[in-house]
């Protein structure tokens, strides 16, 4: 490999790389606004100026190809002086309203002003005034005064989202961003521009003014919106999720996520209609009861049905661990009518990220043996058998069936007994006889297998009453760390909910089968020991970026250690 | 160091003890006739100087609006985590304001860091030192108790400006 020298350090690079790319790969950070690793080179911000030996003038490192033997200085006196001068120009017309600006704390201009600026302005004239609070689209707000005209947002729309929606107009210091006439910034990926905008010119309308970034604790997890499984950070404050942002993973989602995933996959978690504690229907009303009472009720009711009158239906968004234990339990009680519910919306996918499969773990649920292979009925047959009265009791796991398709309401209404494991009260739970409170994906550990066959971890970001942020190793903000229950922010809502595997484990206990698991991780370790597809994997190996499973050689061995229990 | 023979080191005057007692009594008697500093609180109230750091308050402009833009810096710098701010959008030119601003007076240690960090000169240390509560909830001061007209804070503002 060819080599070049940056700041006296010899580094290797791939032919075709630019100086800034070679530097970045070797941990040398050259300041930049307009350059973005995933976008084309624009070269307009001039902050990445470096000195290269034998070149008469400073050059921008983002567009200068690295060549063999090049000697680059990023910290020489000339470079530092030039960088300071460029920063001074940027700050001339910038409103410097950081106290009001939502970007403060994660603003490149703010950071560079501290690192690469003299700290004083020699500009005494009136600053340029531009349009503020411009609604570029349904999800993005634009503040013209803060814009530094880097063109990242324009290039994102053109190159990544594939929709030419934004452009520059005017010249000189009057230049500003606008949508093309008659158009809006409304592509399905529009909010990504707020992440890549180096300043606070573009803001997420859903998150504006909600919180300062340093008040929240980020948790590395996975989006629950579709089978892509975009890597995301979930930002929590006072046990409440305030926003989701994409997390870089080159194999899955690069730097991006879709607007639907960002806006519509977390609001139910802090909603008022969460199921808080187990509920039993008494005289037509769902009444909150203790866990033991709910288990006992479920046991005694299910016992009154023949095995082929019972069906178990799960969502395809269970974690691998949940699905494994559900499967193990269902086999142990010898119920054969067992399947998961698909949620595929034809035509809703695209060639960028969004998948037609709106569930997160269809592959994993299938791999864990949630199916009718033991001679039971498939999903469609189960529904028709419910309608004809041959199936009388259903255990519905994390699936709002009626929400999926209101046509199922007729079938479910016919049932004698419906148990629902649900996160929120919905039309389906309004028909249920017993409702168990299931944790959402943001309240538990687990793994999902995305449509590529990549296994990725989800992590808890919100606590239930069983959890404690610091003891459970969750991310902590300063307020989480030092607050007490007596502080107003310590009195956040915590639900009495459990992950599905734990609820199933309790139910199995009532049926006389003991599972010894105390953590999702232990279930995963058992899977890794018994299923060759997962051999060698554990939570640490899967880590933050996930691991690609060798699904071509996929073999599903029978579940280990099953015990038949009579009901 | 050689061991001190204490008895031997004392002078005669010290050894007879009575002279030292008289010296002490002289100081006591002298102070009996000097002016007194003790105040008969609460009948007489202490009026602190501008440099005094009483409980923090929020400056309110004449139009009844707070100066605070809910930037959250005071909340971040507060070593005692006494301040909780929740921002929201307004139609004003400064598009951010605090819908909720609470200081927990049980947590506050009257350090004045919040005043120092505030970019808007919106939070200031007042002269109010009378803080007594009968339960925890009363100790949390919301905007209703914190907002104070700027006119009443001019003293402190002038003082703070000397050090900008
Ligand atoms: S709005 Fe942001 S991303 Fe777009 S040009 Fe301006 S500074 Fe760059
Ligand atoms: S593409 Fe799918 S996984 Fe990615 S952000 Fe959108 S909904 Fe979530
Ligand atoms: S005076 Fe100090 S302790 Fe009290 S609110 Fe201000 S920063 Fe916090
Ligand atoms: S530092 Fe000043 S402007 Fe910012 S939130 Fe506190 S009081 Fe308001």
Q: What does the model show?
A:
The complex is a heterodimer of chains A (567) and B (164). Chain A contains 16 helices and 23 strands. Chain A has helices at 19-25, 77-93, 108-115, 152-160, 192-196, 259-264, 291-303, 320-332, 362-367, 379-387, 401-404, 408-414, 478-482, 500-511, 520-530, 539-542; strands at residues 3-6, 9-12, 49-52, 59-60, 71-73, 134-135, 140-142, 166-169, 176-179, 202-204, 217-222, 231-237, 240-246, 279-282, 285-288, 310-315, 337-341, 393-397, 417-422, 434-437, 446-449, 454-458, 547-548. In chain A, strand 1 and strand 2 form a beta hairpin. In chain A, helix 8 (320-332) runs parallel beside helix 14, helix 8 (320-332) packs across helix 15 (520-530) and helix 10 packs across helix 12 (408-414). The termini of chain A are far apart. Chain B has 164 residues and is α+β, with helices and mostly antiparallel strands. Chain B has a domain at 56-163: Alpha-Beta Plaits. Chain B contains seven helices and six strands, in the order H-H-H-E-H-E-E-H-E-E-H-E-H. Chain B has helices at residues 6-9, 12-16, 18-32, 73-77, 113-117, 143-146, 154-161, and strands spanning 56-60, 83-89, 96-104, 123-125, 140-141, 147-149. Chains A and B meet through helix 13 of A and helix 4, strand 2 and strand 3 of B. Bound molecules: iron/sulfur cluster (4 copies). One iron/sulfur cluster is lined by residues 223, 225-226, 228-230, 253, 257-258, 260-261, 353-354 of chain A. One iron/sulfur cluster (SF4) is lined by residues 68-74, 85, 117-118, 120, 122-123 of chain B.
